[in-house]
Design brief:
- This protein is of the alpha+beta class and 80 residues long.
- The protein folds into 2 domains: 39 residues, no CATH class; 38 residues, no CATH class.
- Helix content is 40%, strand content 25%.
- The protein contains 2 helices and 3 strands; from the N terminus they run E-E-E-H-H.
- The chain has a 3-stranded antiparallel beta sheet with strand order 1-2-3, with no helix packed on it.
- Strand 1 and strand 2 form a beta hairpin.
- It starts with 10 loop residues before the first strand and ends with a helix.
- The model has no long low-confidence stretch (mean pLDDT 87).
- It is found in: Cytoplasm.
- Keywords: Bacterial flagellum biogenesis, Cytoplasm, Repressor, RNA-binding, Translation regulation.
- This is Translational regulator CsrA.
- Belongs to the CsrA/RsmA family.
Length: 80
């Protein structure tokens, strides 16, 4: 991990086509501008973690699905 100090309006270059610029620093909050090609995905880490958890919740063990279906089957038969 590379750790850098930057002041307002200073930038960091990543490769030839990504620029990160410090826009504002105040009250413990840093505003950052990211200039990158459209094909580069940029997402806040906490949103990616949430997306990963949602994906993991969708991908279940087939036996867990069978158990859930078996548990629901009596209720489905009653409602028909």
């Amino acid at each position: 991990m590379l750790i850098l100090k930057r002041k307002k309006n200073e930038s960091i270059l990543i490769g030839d086509d990504i620029r990160i610029t410090i826009i504002e620093c105040s009250s413990g909050i840093v505003r950052v501008a990211v200039d990158a090609p459209k094909e580069v995905s940029i997402i806040r880490e906490e949103l990616q973690e949430t997306a990963d958890m949602n994906h993991d919740a969708l991908v279940t063990d087939p036996s867990a699905l069978q158990s859930a279906a078996a548990a629901l089957l009596p209720y489905l038969r009653e409602s028909c």
